[in-house]
């Protein structure tokens, strides 16, 4: 699948280059956006207007540019990631968010300087051992301090992954969803609330016992359709599968902002465990952080574990993925180049070197790629006149 930012650029006017972005970067980075939630474009209230004026405006304004909620058409392709393109004629502070906005050269240069500063002051060996040795400890502390109030319910999941709607239909038959890294249930509970399938089962697993306790105490926890358990997706031996599930028993596995919490040394085991659980032809729904996301650029000294891998202030870990890197991890090969795109000899050499480090080959990889998109957003704080670049990767993998 072609990079969605490139698709957007081809179909819109020249993308907006954020002015004075390096100057504004420090102020922007001071605004923490530590949640993993999809950001909703909520607009400030406006004064009522006459019906005839509103009708004329609806006729003239495309749905994706409208402030009127009744005129915001849902996109048909989940991997379009919105169609609000920013052009040089636009007022960047008119909306809370813009889609498919590439960072300009000034911000890229600023980001690279930030990365160099991060590399120059890594986490000490003592702290590496402390944070990597027992990651569940830090997530237990996180959920002890935040309970169920930190993350918002992911009501956007059905839009991004239509298969979740399909298996919740009344006549879908026996279906099993496995959510990995369920946290406080912000994915499982919204799915359960919309479910109409009497034969649906949701297994919500997290390696934080505290998080699982939060789910089990929630008033929406219905044991008829949902089971919450402690499980580490990178577990080995007897702990490689969660309670209540056997091999090839899962129709859909959901990994939303969980793979980034694993150490690179755990990726292969995690993929193998997921592959063992998912039925042939089953689907993995995936969303996580992309390299260059604001959350990565804003890290200061003493947080760098290894390239693209950091420790947050609360002791939890986070990795920021390149698109091709992520596709290789799951399928053994990078995403095919876009039509007409031919890598040069240097790129071929680098690809060969990287291939030697791939966990799987194309032949023995358990998954094939269905879609992988880059969701780039320019998030705007209109009150403070700040611009914040976000980058997420979203994909679907199919079990062979």
UniProtKB/TrEMBL annotation:
Q: Which UniProt keywords apply?
A: Methyltransferase, Transferase
The UniProt record lists the keyword Transferase: yes
Keyword match Transcription regulation: no
In this chain the Methyltransferase type domain maps to 178-283
What protein is this chain from? Answer: tRNA N(3)-methylcytidine methyltransferase
Function description: S-adenosyl-L-methionine-dependent methyltransferase.
What protein family does this chain belong to?
A: Belongs to the methyltransferase superfamily. METL family.
């Amino acid at each position: 699948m072609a990079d969605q930012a490139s698709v957007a650029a081809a179909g819109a006017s020249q993308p907006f280059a954020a002015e004075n972005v390096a100057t504004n970067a420090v102020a922007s980075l001071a605004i923490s956006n530590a949640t993993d939630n999809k950001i909703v474009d909520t607009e400030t209230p406006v004064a009522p207007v006459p019906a005839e004026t509103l009708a004329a405006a609806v006729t003239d304004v495309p749905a994706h540019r409208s402030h009127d909620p009744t005129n915001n058409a849902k996109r048909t392709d989940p991997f379009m990631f919105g169609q609000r393109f920013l052009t040089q004629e636009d007022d960047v502070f008119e909306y809370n968010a813009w889609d498919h906005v590439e960072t300009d050269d000034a911000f890229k240069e600023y980001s690279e300087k930030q990365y160099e500063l991060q590399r120059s002051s890594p986490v000490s060996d003592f702290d590496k051992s402390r944070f990597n040795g027992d990651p569940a400890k830090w997530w237990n502390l996180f959920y002890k301090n935040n309970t169920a109030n930190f993350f918002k319910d992911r009501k956007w999941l059905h839009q991004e992954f239509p298969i979740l709607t399909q298996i919740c239909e009344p006549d879908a038959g026996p279906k099993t969803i496995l959510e990995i890294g369920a946290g406080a249930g912000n994915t499982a509970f919204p799915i359960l609330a919309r479910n109409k399938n009497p034969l649906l089962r949701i297994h919500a697993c997290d390696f934080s016992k505290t998080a699982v306790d939060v789910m089990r105490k929630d008033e929406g926890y219905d044991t008829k359709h949902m089971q919450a358990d402690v499980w580490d997706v990178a577990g080995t031996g007897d702990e490689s599968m969660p309670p209540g599930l056997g091999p090839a028993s899962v129709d859909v596995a959901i990994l939303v902002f969980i793979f980034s919490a694993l150490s690179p040394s755990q990726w292969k085991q995690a993929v193998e465990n997921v592959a063992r659980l998912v039925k042939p032809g089953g689907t993995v729904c995936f969303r996580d952080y992309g390299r260059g996301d604001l959350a990565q650029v804003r890290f200061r000294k003493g947080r760098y574990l290894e390239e693209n891998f950091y420790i947050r202030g609360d002791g939890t870990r986070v990795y920021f993925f390149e698109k091709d890197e992520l596709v290789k991890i799951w399928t053994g090969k990078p995403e095919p180049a876009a039509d007409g795109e031919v890598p040069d000899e240097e790129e071929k050499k680098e690809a060969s070197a990287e291939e030697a480090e791939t966990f799987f080959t194309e032949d023995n990889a358990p998954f094939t790629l269905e879609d992988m998109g880059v969701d780039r957003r320019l998030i705007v704080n209109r009150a403070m006149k700040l611009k914040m670049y976000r980058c997420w990767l979203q994909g679907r993998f199919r079990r062979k």
